[in-house]
Design brief:
single chain; 450 residues; GMP Synthetase, Chain A, domain 3; Helicase, Ruva Protein, domain 3; 4 domains; 5-stranded parallel sheet; 20 helices; 8 strands; 9% strand
Amino acid sequence: MELIWRQIKESLVQKMPSHTYRMWIEPLEVGNAGEDTLQLVCPNPYFRKRVLDYFLPEIKAEVQHITGKNIDLDLRIAAADKRPEDSVSNAPPQQLQLCLPEINIPSNYGRLLRDDYTFDQFVVGKSNDFAYSAALSLAVRKNIQQSSLFLLSKAGLGKSHLAQAVGHQILRNQPKERVYYMTAEDFANEMVSSYRSNSISAFKEKYHKLCDVLLLDDIHHLSGKNRTQIELAHTLDYLINENKKIIFSSCYAPSDIPKLSDNLRSRLTCGLISSIEPPEYRMRIKILEHYAQANSWLIPKEIFEYLASELTQDVRQLKSGMSGMIAKSSLLGRPIDLGLAKDVIRNMVQKNEDISVSTIKKLVCKYYNISIKDLVSSSRKQAIVRPRQVAMYLARRFTDQPLQSIGKSFNRYHATAMHSIGVVERGIRQGASVQKHVEYLSGKIEKGDY
């Protein structure tokens, strides 16, 4: 059965997203079973339920494909759990209340982890795939070469979500682990308070010897706090020497944080540094769809596309825009449509944010002294066609929307958008008058002078 399971895993790794495979399939191990039964051992009850609910059909299909037999699949929980009701082939498992381990949970483990900040609720894309994989690896593996991770991104892109997801996953697999989650400001305030109350020895004991996992958000807030930096550097020495897991997060790279001691800076850079970039257009739609599904909101596809094209700043802004739209719809009894979405985000989109197609339209219309209605009309007058082509070119250059969406914004097919962009590019290469127009408008966009 070991050989069969290896073949099944080799097949599944090609068909699943890499992060899903690493989290839910790779940890499964073959147990003791007969020739007609494949027994897989799960780390804990939650893991078993997750595999049953989401991955059992795929595993069964691969078993059938590789063996050509109807082999029973039996999922068991690791250690001493040998109850017959754990078998998949029996009746559906009962929803039993699990007994909590007999441990005393102290009240000073820092901030509470948010329930929704888990790996399952994190939307993965090109902009954050490496950070997600690094965090997941740190959470699920015991023997790892890099025990610390530095998450780098602007505010609202998910670094706190990933840090807390690590805490959730570790506690799920190993409930006795002592996971401390806090901001750097919390750490500094606690240290100052311990000095004032003559309890600094208890403070050091807590972080040096009673901490298994340290999740420290917004490390850049320690800038200029020399005494706190010294204490944190000592704490990190203890944790790193004991191979404890550490996650830092910040809006700035360690080398860019001002007034940071060399000792602390070197410890922040001793692990893996992973950046999270702003989500591109398709991922923004995916985030909105995931958020709507999690809250059971029925929203038309055109609303997702509109919000994704206008709210380009970060994930937090996306969720805020959708929540505001739902709230206004509920309070006023208005249907969820494009008009409502425009009303809600009108005050959210400000100047100097990432440029959108809508902003480009307004800028081009003002420059050529035409109306938005003319720009998106079916008119083929040269006085309208040229501004429309320039607007499409600028939309392609300064936004991350695909050609299909750009064309749709101008009531055109993507092939027309592609032709328009090509016309402008040729004009620029040939030094035609359109070159000066594009240079002027591009300068306005780059300066944020819309």
